[in-house]
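Morning!

As promised:
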Amino acid sequence: MNLQAALYLIPTNISEAPFADFFPQGNIEVIREIKHFIVENIRTARRFLKKCDPSIDISQITFYELNGHTDPKDVSSYLQPLRDGNSVGIMSEAGCPGVADPGALPVSIAQKEGLKVIPLCGPSSILMSLMASGMNGQHFAFNGYLPVDIKERERKIRELEQLSIKHDMTQIFIETPYRNSKMMESLLKILRPDTLLCVASEITDPLREKIVTRRVDDWRKEGYEIGKCPAIFLIHG
Amino acid sequence: MNLQAALYLIPTNISEAPFADFFPQGNIEVIREIKHFIVENIRTARRFLKKCDPSIDISQITFYELNGHTDPKDVSSYLQPLRDGNSVGIMSEAGCPGVADPGALPVSIAQKEGLKVIPLCGPSSILMSLMASGMNGQHFAFNGYLPVDIKERERKIRELEQLSIKHDMTQIFIETPYRNSKMMESLLKILRPDTLLCVASEITDPLREKIVTRRVDDWRKEGYEIGKCPAIFLIHG
């Protein structure tokens, strides 16, 4: 394969589903040709590459770590191979680089310098939950994490509900797994009975994926069980 | 393959790229088992199925059309096979069903009845352009089409720029191909010189894809050429 030199944005798995169920074969052909990867976590990245193709020789690959500990000043140097004509890949811990994770910085530098950027296709909990929620996909917003402080979170939930009513707009947000139950408590406390709430958990997991949309009133009546698993929440008032 | 009975949301191609470059092999295995499809356009859907697997026997498949001409009252009946225990697929004209197209209605009916909904993975111009723009992927909104009327469109562009500044939020919208040039004119007229504008066109096309982020000032200076091709626009002030 003759790979065009570019910054490739490589989605990674968001569950333990078989690789071929959620990644195009074409991604593997691209990954095989790349020797420089900017990654959120080196161990996870190595494991992902081995899952893509066990014959990949990891010892020939240079990894550049990009996470909360990275000095932003160092990030530009990670793109040096690309300036020299060699492709660089970006992989985040899970999902699509640059979307709800730190990958956007090297991409913005590449764009500023006019370097070629090519996104690959892969699973996204935001997009897949939106499709499956049945909510408005013509107009939606992703809000990342809501505030941890309970009063601020409740205020934010109320604000998002108002926005969704006013603009006929789906509002999407995430929570860290161990706070899922607290989040559900806040949502069922604050939201109006008629508001639709979709809870999507363990997306792409062939056995455990659950994407359920109900009126808040029905969630309250029928109860819910949400474990400490990756989940994403959508509301439409 | 023993397919779980569900409403499957099946992304379709957004360019003429080879199928394996942007679709997981797993999608084909699912598609092969489905005999009922809700589709935006039957001809396009037939072509897509043949592209997935030339051995699929189209004469064995029932199509249900869902587009501007469909009476919403008919849509519920399209889900009857699923109520009877047989999987139904939804495919839009291009991209992900339910996102920026009419697919959300049958999904919302399925959710209301507690029927299982399973999204598959495939290319999305919204998500792929966002990844490659280098703009904020922690907080973003998709706004569909902007108003056609020039004054209203300009007002809307100003409003989206203000929102993106105020909330550090990427604002995304689309335009029909033959109005791309008009849209660029409006954008370069209205936006502030420092605002970042990403124009992403022909996403996933191996030869023609172009995803470029520049300051508005630089777009003005360096000029641009945007044909009558599928494009998506992102701004961050």
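Chain A is about 40% helix and 20% strand.

Hope this helps with the figure draft.
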